[in-house]
Amino acid sequence: MCLGIPGQIIEVTDQNHKLAIVNIAGVKRQINIACIVDEQHPPESCIGDWVLVHVGFAMNRINEKEALETLQMLQEIANC
């Protein structure tokens, strides 16, 4: 089973290597955004996007409502 954690891209640190900083529930870490960029959505336009992060990669974009709901559920599970 794979688990994607929602996070919001807050900075693109290396456009050539497609690296960015994502904020996941207050924790900031570097991720690879190669899977979510293309000619219509270049790296610099990813700032502010909500994404599912798995093993250091942004796997796909999600909307903010879905991201926040998922983060809330994960927090509730952690508090059990």
What does this structure look like?
This protein is of the alpha+beta class and 80 residues long. Helices cover 19% and strands 41% of the residues. It contains one helix and five strands. The protein has a five-stranded antiparallel β-sheet, covered by helices on one side.
- The tally of strands reads 5
Shape: elongated
Tell me the strand order in the biggest sheet. 3-2-1-4-5
Number of helices: 1
**SSE ordering:** EEEEEH
Average of pLDDT: 94
Largest sheet: 5 strands, antiparallel
> What percentage of amino acids are in beta strands?
35-45%
Low-confidence stretches are none
In short:
The longest helix has 15 residues, at 64-78. This protein has one helix spanning 64-78; strands at residues 5-14, 19-24, 27-32, 50-54, 57-62.
